[in-house]
Amino acid sequence: MPGLHIRDETVNDLAIAVMKATNAPNKTEAVRRALQNELARLRKEVPLKERIKEIQDRIESRIGPNPKSEPFDMKAFMDEQWER
């Protein structure tokens, strides 16, 4: 099985830093742990679309529905304005 070959010096420095911080036996194990942790973090993350939907739902419950989500009846609105 081939070993891990890191050609980019910055990435190599990061791998060494992770290796030291996690007490990994080598850079390959450090990179494995870092990648596994990143995948776990991404899997737990709620997608932006869902986070926005939650915020919109909270706001709607406080101030009422978004008028743009329902068709606006301009005639009824104008009739109401003229009646006053």
Q: Mind telling me the C-alpha Rg?
A: 27 Å
How many H/I helices? 4
Query: In which range does the helix fraction lie?
Result: 55-70%
What's the total number of strands?
0
Order of helices and strands: HHHH
What's the short story on this structure?
The protein has 84 residues and is mainly alpha-helical. 69% of the residues lie in helices and 0% in strands.
Notes on the protein architecture:
By secondary structure, this protein is an all-alpha fold. It is built from four helices and no strands. The longest helix is centred in the middle third of the chain and has 18 residues, at about 25-45. The protein is rod-shaped and about 80 Å long.
Index terms:
single chain; 84 residues; mainly alpha; 4 helices; rod-shaped
Topology:
Blueprint: H1 9-22, H2 27-44, H3 48-63, H4 74-83
Helix pairs in contact: 1-2
